[in-house]
Amino acid sequence: MSGKLTKRSEDYSKWYNELVVKADLAENSAVRGCMVVKPYGYAIWENMQKVLDEMFKETGHENAYFPLLVPKSLFEAEEKNAEGFAKECAVVTHYRLKNDPDKEGKLMVDPNAKLEEELVVRPTSEAIIWNTYKGWIESYRDLPLLVNQWANVMRWEMRTRLFLRTAEFLWQEGHTAHETEAEALEETTRMQNVYAEFAENYMAMPVIKGVKTESERFAGALDTYTIEALMQDGKALQAGTSHFLGQNFAEAFDVKFTTKEGKKEYVWASSWGVSTRLIGGLIMTHSDDLGLVLPPKLAPIQVVIVPIFRKEEQLDAISEKVSGIVKSLKKRGVSVKFDNRTTHKPGWKFAEYELKGVPLRVAMGPRDLENGTLELARRDTLTKEVVEQDGIEDKIVALLEEIQESLLGKAKSYRDEHITKVDDFEEFKKVIDTKGGFVLAHWDGTEETEDKIKELTKATIRCIALDQEEEQGVCVYSGNPSSKRVLFAKAY
Fold it and tell me: What own/partner pairs with CB < 8 Å and gap ≥ 24 does 466-471 have?
């Protein structure tokens, strides 16, 4: 933990990169474009996993695991999906190394160990899963099939940034099969709602629910539903997607079922996923120039207690008092750490936990023992207060709830202040370049206009919001008729 962070106002990207490393969340690995998620960063991911996994199971899903490697022929079966991910694929061609006769001690690919069929390292698992489902589904009695997997995937990204875009990342991917189109669509929107609930209630990150345009859809989907968040620098972040796949993958892999009437029909499908990019979203929604600010519901350490002492007997007396508080808080489900290390001074510890975004810091010294008090410091507001030790557990639990709600309220206010309705292209460009955020503008529905706006402003259509009302107007760029406004923004 060395040196201050670059200020967000000076260089937001540099601030983010420094914070991820200095707060011990992750670091670049020896493999180009890949990251090492460190224990503190992984603890945040585990908390996310735990909550989401419970939410998935409450909606009837079960976990399974499918292979990392996909035979190339299977990957190619659904043409749009294969084409969409082709440029990002890592491919295994050989299965053995051998000593290089020309370079002592060096290894080379054994040309005699070429695979009969090349294997794609999964960029997503539709191909291997739908090939498997063919053997699992025979009749309507086997449906719906509601499966999720927690896994890693590989997408050969050229420009990477820790958590936000890496060649390998961790995620979950749900893959479901249904009797009817209506059921598959219901599943698609249900999971979009699950993601939105998680983002707002746990991450304290407000999102807009919408549908992607055709050019922004998942490769192989008929519709992609999304949740879009706004970061502090005015850029949008796609935080989760849920795809209505229609019968595309069922047809590609010949997955049919016998209906109640005895007919053979293709099943209907959905897929949906969120990844470790959520940690990037968490950082950029709440954190400040001093370090991380974490919402209590996802913080690995919700409360840290730091003793202030000079003599060993003072530490012993404080430790005895603190042990009761720690036990009581743990019984209430609060994650608490008592940092009684003698190798670091209290000031150093304060700075460390500030950097790591611990929501509440408690300090207790000899005078507090005498007076029956302690000091409480909030990470979100950086405010301190001296309070009575009696009833401290109730006070802490209430404060954690207050911090969670306050973070969501603050992020919502920022997001709402950065949604700008625009009717003129000159104003559109000005808002995108200076204010940032979401621009709500009319679009004529053509890919040509969408591409031209992106070329001129670097802003993309983030989504067509589900709650956006019909409104006759003219396209902000082409002047052609439009029936609805869409949300544009620069994005990660």
Answer: 466/209, 466/210, 466/211, 467/209, 468/210, 471/442
For 66, 127, 249, 288, the CA distances from 76, given in Å and listed in that order, are 18, 8, 11, 45
d(Cα 115, Cα 226) in Å, to the nearest integer?
39
For tokens 């306050």, the residue is 406
Residue 105's pLDDT is 85
CA 222 to centroid of chain Cα atoms: 23
DSSP-assigned letters across all residues of 171-205: EEEEEEEESSHHHHHHHHHHHHHHHHHHHHHTS--
Measured CA to CA, the distance from residue 264 to residue 246 in angstroms comes to 16
Give the tens place of pLDDT for each residue, 300-333: 999 999 999 999 999 999 999 999 999 999 999 9
DSSP state of 4: P
By residue count, the chain amounts to 492
Query: Which residues does 95 contact at the CB level (< 8 Å), separation at least 6?
Result: 113, 115
First to last CA, the chain: 27
Beta strands in 267-414 (DSSP E): 268-275, 303-307, 336-338, 360-364, 373-378, 384-388
Q: What pairs with residue 473 in β-bridges?
A: 482
- Burial class, 1, CB count within 10 angstroms (exposed 0-12 / middle 13-18 / buried 19+): exposed
DSSP notation for 290-323: TB----TTT-S-SEEEEE--SSHHHHHHHHHHHH
pTM: 0.96
**148's tokens:** 């999720």
Placement of tokens 């990957």 in the chain = 75
Range 282-304 average pLDDT:
98
Q: What pLDDT digit, counting tens, does each position of 85-96 carry?
A: 999 999 999 999
Angle in degrees, CA 404, 407, 413, rounded to 5 = 140
For residue 463, the surrounding DSSP H or E stretch is strand 460-465
| Residue linked to tokens 């989401």 | 52
Q: Residue 21 CA to chain centroid, in angstroms?
A: 18
Place of tokens 């040509």: 448
Return the half-sphere exposure (C-beta side, CA atoms, 13 A cut-off) of residue 165: 11
Name beta bridge partners: 364. 307
Whole-number pLDDT of residue 2: 57
**Phi, psi at 208, each rounded to 5°:** -110, 130
For strand 114-121 and strand 303-307, is the pairing parallel, antiparallel, or unpaired? unpaired
Count CB neighbours of 236 within 10 A. 25
CA torsion, ordered 249, 79, 154, 276, to nearest 10 deg: -50
Q: Beta-strand (E) ranges in 23-123?
A: 26-28, 35-37, 62-63, 69-71, 90-94, 97-99, 107-109, 114-121
Work out whether the CA dihedral 473, 476, 479, 484 comes out positive or negative.
negative
* Dist CA 438 CA 424 (whole Å): 15
Whether 62 shows a pLDDT value over 70: the answer reads yes
What span, in angstroms and rounded, lies between the C-alpha atoms of 288 and 151?
31
